[in-house]
Records
---
Amino acid sequence: MTVIHCYSSAFRLLLACLFGVVGLLGLSGESALGQSYTSARLADGFDYPVGKPDAYGYYVYRGFSSYGHLGEDWNGNGGGNSDEGDPIYSTANGVVIFSEDYHKGWGNVIIIRHAYRGNNGQISFIDSLYGHLKVRSVKVGQQVTRGQVVGTMGRGPYRMYAAHLHFEIRKDLRVGMRRELYPKTTTTYHSPRTFINAHRRLRLEDRLVRIPINTFLKTNPNKIFSDAINLPEVSSGTTVRPQVPADIDLIIEEETEAAAATPEKSRSLLDKLLGR
Ligand SMILES: [Zn+2]
């Protein structure tokens, strides 16, 4: 009885250790490249970001176009700013990877990363972006579910637009707020309605998956750097040195030799310098 009891305690301890290690490595590991991972619930389908879940009461005022408008502008049927402050919903389960007032024509922006099982059976990732928001109600790292309110419809920075939602779906996880660095085509973006309509209901798999984060590139990946950087030469003649009288210079020279480095010698140097 005692033996069994001891064995089971030891076994439980071992399990606790194993799960502890797996938990640390698996859910928030960081690779050598600085890319790290978090976990989020696999998407069970994609809904519209307004008029949950089918965009009832809303329409696309301006659609997606390559080399043009890289997302969709959603407006309420009421027209004008009657839709200002309307709830904006996460299109699917995911994790918030960006939530900022970005200014520059964007205003409040939220980006959510989603993992879903594509038609090929593989797990794929996309980012959904919600722009010009009046209010952001989720923060980076937060897990969200399909249909969860993430903010409200706004008018952009300084209320510069008529209220609408600018909505994008990105295939390329590096884009972030640097759209100018990537092809403005369907190699980088999905046409939002086309993607949503093709993924309305996915097989129910209630599980967490590992999601890469910190994938936004800060600099242009296509920029060419030259190897040699030519710095202007600085001639030693232009170096400014303090002017020390020759006799003082000689004293310093003699007295700062290694052999002279004793308290007594330092004392005598001080006396000489002070003219005692
Ligand atoms: Zn837009």
---
Amino acid sequence: MTDVVTEPAAVGTQHSGRRVGFISLGCPKALVDSERILTQLRFEGYEVAPSYEDADAVIVNTCGFITPAVEESLSAIGEALEATGKVIVTGCLGERPEKIMERHPKVAAITGSEAVDDVMGHVRALLPIDQGAFTGLLPVAAPGMRAGAGQPTSQPERELTKHGDVFAPSVKLTPRHYAYVKIAEGCNHTCSFCIIPKLRGLQVSRDAGAVLYEAYRLIAGGTKELMIISQDTSAYGVDVRYRESEFQGGQVRAHLSDLAVKLGEMGAWVRMHYVYPYPHVDRIVELMAQGKILPYLDVPLQHASPKILKAMRRPGAGKQLDTIRRWREICPELVIRSTFIVGFPGETEDDFQELLQFLEDARLDRVGAFTYSDVDEADANKLADPVPQEVKEERLSRFMEIAQRISAEKLAEKVGTVMDVIIDEFNDEEDDAPGTRLIGRTKGDAPGIDGQVYLFAGELAGQVKIGDIVKARIEDSDEYDLYGEVVEKPEWSPNVPQLGHFGGH
Ligand code: SF4
């Protein structure tokens, strides 16, 4: 773990001396780390500053995955430094402090990822506060307890792991109605294009009980959709030998299928991300067919040519098409999302044709693709036969043309049906009565990466709120999105008592 401390630069406006600005960059996994730091900041009495002008210091949670992300992180650090002079850097890029110090020698401290305690140590050193003040205590509601009433006076419940002190965040950076739940950190694979295992270490799984209590608390507080994330969700629990832990008086194994069963029983939407096609995923797909969790799998396949998959050293590669066909037999409504890399070193036109054929055969619902680019310190940089940039780009556009056509065809099949849609935002135009136009997502769309549903509220205008799950008649579609009208607004009734609604759901 990196941990660099320097003298802070002597600039910045003084306020109460305990206002911390926060910049969160990177993937949902980094977002969860940001939530943990923000939770602890507020627990210790710090205020979160809405702008540089209001901040006494700034924490930048960085991304170090690909070159553009590194650049974005470095320029955010520069901006924060210029504005306040006191900057603590954390996150993936923090694992490579020399890169940061080279450009920004005046940062106050650098820590790696998952380093809540180290970050807090640096915050306390930079902005010491009178512990007696303790004004920013954030209510952390225990399951079934109303937030703000009978609060614990000790630290929030914590779970010790090799990565340090990990606890369920109570500050969320997502809207109230959905949340990311991280079930493990790190990765045991060695994909040749990826440096995440070097940055974040080997996999460390959380106990199933801790994950389930976090999910329970979120749903009790109004969260309707849980996104389950980690680097390799199918491998959850392998590192702790699927050890059992307590949840509501029983024991639960740290195994994906056991976890999915328990999560499904809570009655919220449960969405699985970063699932590799291992045999035991069939059981997860069965739970989808039974309506226990969402019929949605985010499976990063990256390529279809066995030669390229071998060069990528991908986990779970091989017989991908058979696996997808089997999953669809088990759960015909399954929506599969995947990502691919085109132009990997050594990719010939034949390999690429194999990928295109796979795309035609697999008819994946949601597809993202990137051209390959070197990542500092990745093994793939040394591979022979790099693909010229113009060939990569030409392949990407041929790939996306097919992916878009398939997406449009699959979405057109939804026209005329009635689908469940979770509402993310209002989309009213100037002359509309409030709540006339809405934007939401179906069970087959994850926030931020998949399509959206543009809706007229019709007779329910003004009655539908953000976070409601409505029934909508689909009337039109294009390459990525659906269009329709709300026809019903059923009551939301999860199997977890709702805070503020005691005595019923
Ligand atoms: S599975 Fe591969 S790509 Fe994903 S985090 Fe692990 S090493 Fe990186």
